[in-house]
Amino acid sequence: MGDVHYLTCADTAKLVRTALRESFPGVKFSVRAKTYSGGASISVWWTDGPMRADVEAVARQFEGADFDGMIDLKSSRQHWLTADGRVRLAYREGTTGSRGVIELHGRRADSGGTAGAFWGRFHLLHAHSLR
Question: What is the pTM of this model?
Fold first, then answer.
């Protein structure tokens, strides 16, 4: 794989904020990153606008790992990060080989000109209020 970039939780939060702004124009989001011993979290707040599932569909594409509670196993993800900040899942280890439920996705391969990006596992915390 070409250049590999390791992004901090704060860098990832910036990408999440940009993706939400592009996906839901006119909706004001508050996106905050927090790191602590043993992990990190990105919190997203908004009032009115999109439903929780729609926001999660945009934000969760930036997660760096999956957790399969059926077998208590964490598995990693690799992404392609384009120059304009868009992200695409390149590879996900999956857990089905260990009798888990997360499917393998893609394969480790050359990026074709985009940079590989890795970010740590974070929990997406969110709040949504209606006026």
Answer: 0.72
